[in-house]
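O-antigen ligase
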Amino acid sequence: MHAHGTAVPAPPPAAAVRVREATARWWPLLPVLATVLLLAAPVHGAGAGGPARVTPADAASGAVVLCALVGVLRRRTKPLAPVAVFVFGAPAVGCAIATVTSADPALSLTGFVRYLQVFVLVPLAVVLLIRDAWGFRVVTGCLVVLALVQGVVGVHQYVTGTGASYMGEDIRAVGTFGPTDVMGMATVVAYGLLAAAALALRTPRHAPGWLRPAALVAAMGLVVPLALSFSRGAWIATVIAGATLLLLAGRRLAMRTLAVLVPASVVLVVGFGVGSEMISQRLTSITQVTDTPDRSVNDRYTMWAAATSMWREQPAAGVGLKGFPAHRDAHASIGLSSGSDTAGAGRSFEKQPLLSPHNMYLLVLSEQGLIGVTAFVGSWAAVLVGGVRRLLPAGRRTVAAADCGLVAVGLALWQTVDFLYADIGGPSTVLTGIVFGLAAWWALAGPRHAASPAPACPSARVPGAPVEAEARAAT
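Predicted structure tokens:
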């Protein structure tokens, strides 16, 4: 009691403080985690060639953007550096120009919204909502969980003959995405494989002892569904990105990891006879695409030529977003198929229209011209180069957030390589925005932000505490 009899307010209970700290730490991440995990749910979309549907994950991505906007308004501070404004602003400008110059602006507007969602708003929101390396690792962990779930579903589809149709058998692993999005599961599994491999190569300093072996087992296990996806583009991108991660992690560590990963993967895929004959045929077809291309490869080449022809006709701004299907037949040769056959995985036979060239760079070039492709490629290159530049000194100093850098660079490199053989489309597209957000967070966040290690327990950091204090506590 004071002299005047006034009672001193009691401090808040420790439990209440911990709840408040945990809430402040977790709430910005919840919509991001929901967007990732909702992709594990089966998608009952429209038939092949039907109108696109807004999936639960798409709706959750809207919450991601809204939460980021609320956070910016509450902080009332300048949220982005000038380079970040370029990275996210350039694609938006390119899309806007292609929309207003399109022959069908109303149709192009739907494409503008989708591009804005995937390449601008969602990545930007992820950059703003991830506050430290701990948050990055939580999102990465959910990505691995999603990959494992989809991988288990895919392997089950192969074993039970309930997958998508491939070479006359319903054995192609497509996860919950169905036969009209055969790249969906392959993309998710590849993301998870690279994220798990990065965690195994550069385990966080304060991580529990079980994390590295668990990450290694997850990476090895995800090789199986990736192989059973029969996706040549995903295989090539994964090999290139994985080899790059090994080089960035250091030669000695890379050799030790390869000594474990390669034999185990061979045993899983070949030793148990997991689709080994068909996988071998698919691998062989990669080297024969120029000599004896199959029908799918021939269609791809034809659509690539059509996309290039569209660009020559409209070199500056392209034919407009969503304009490729309308202009395809006028620029494609007579050898182009009428559509792609899809069946299996709970769906009857359908003819899926060829709506894109299956090459993101050529799709942007044909629909947005030199303006759009320069903006997009410049944006992606800035993220990838910036991520590698920040990772190289981190690798030499072996700082705690080097695992975040490996994940970010691996995912960004995989996506840019895969875009040579694929483009956006389908329910899994929203995950591309999350991945670019993770890569951009590492490439664009300040050195103190990304280099701050995760605390030993979630409550070890008081929200709003200076980052310098965290760095001193970890050394």
